[in-house]
Amino acid sequence: QTRCGCSLVSCRVDHERIRAVGPDRAASEWLLRCGALVRYQGSPKWQQDYNGLPTGPLGKYKIEAINATDSCIMYRGFDYLDGLEHVTDIKLEKCMYIQDQCLQRLSETNNLQKSLQQLKIISCGNVTDKGIIALHKLRNLEYLYLSDLPGIKQKETTCRVLQQALPNLELELDLE
Questions:
Q1: Rounded distance, CA 152 to CA 137, Å?
Q2: Quick one: pLDDT at residue 47?
Q3: In angstroms, rounded to a whole number, what is the distance separating the alpha carbons of residues 86 and 27?
Q4: Nearest residue to 131 via CA among 107, 95, 96
Q5: How many helices (H) and strands (E) does the chain have?
Q6: CA separation for the pair 69, 92 (Å, rounded)
Q7: Neighbour count for residue 45 (Cβ, 10 Å)
Q8: Which domains are assigned to the chain?
Q9: 104-129 pLDDT tens trace
Q10: How far is residue 77 CA from its own chain's centroid?
Q11: Quick one: three-class SS letters along 30-94?
Q12: Cα-flanking dihedrals φ and ψ of residue 120, to 5°?
């Protein structure tokens, strides 16, 4: 069991479920089970109740934002993100299972390379410079906020590499 009570089995990706209910619904289920919140296109409110997930025709609800604060999302569930085409905003805060490999995977997700505009990474102790540099493939990223990341040792170099790769990126740092 992980810290938030999801068994490692429930963290595995269920590809049949994705086919059955669509990528946004399957990803919503995974994210909420892990303690994250999702917001759908056209809705101002965050969805946090797994049992209150909206129903409707396949593909009606598109995830636009993910707030993974204090959640136990981890690398092995990231396949759920592959089919999401409308995510513009992700916040990873106090995610103890988020490490460089996760950020690299995020950055290599084709749909996120197109859609993701804002990313906040806060108090994720396993993230290092390598993970932040891996974000350079998120070509439409407009805003990146980094705070309380003790694994970042070469702040200037890391920032320079990112700014060169993503000239339109607004980078906000609150690092020691």
A1: 19
A2: 96
A3: 12
A4: 107
A5: 6, 7
A6: 6
A7: 8
A8: 15-174 (3.80.10.10)
A9: 999 999 999 999 999 999 999 999 99
A10: 11
A11: HHHHCCCEEEECCCCCEECCHHHCCCCCCCCCCEEEEECCCCCCCHHHHHHHCCCCCCCEEEEEC
A12: -120, 130
Instruction: Identify any residues that bridge with 143 across adjacent strands, giving them in sequence order.
Output: 118, 170
| Cβ contact 140:116 at 8 Å | yes
Does position 1 have pLDDT exceeding 50, yes or no?
no
Structure tokens at 50: 């797994």
Q: Which of 115, 165, 169, 170 is nearest to 137 (CA)?
A: 165
Please name the amino acid found at residue 121.
Answer: I
pLDDT band at 11 (very low <50, low <70, confident <90, very high): low
Rg (CA), the chain: 16
Q: How far apart are CA 76 and CA 51, in angstroms?
A: 23
Copy the structure tokens of residue 64.
């636009």
Q: For residue range 54-75, list pLDDT tens digits in order.
A: 888 888 899 999 999 999 999 9
What CA–CA distance (Å, rounded) separates 70 from 110? 26
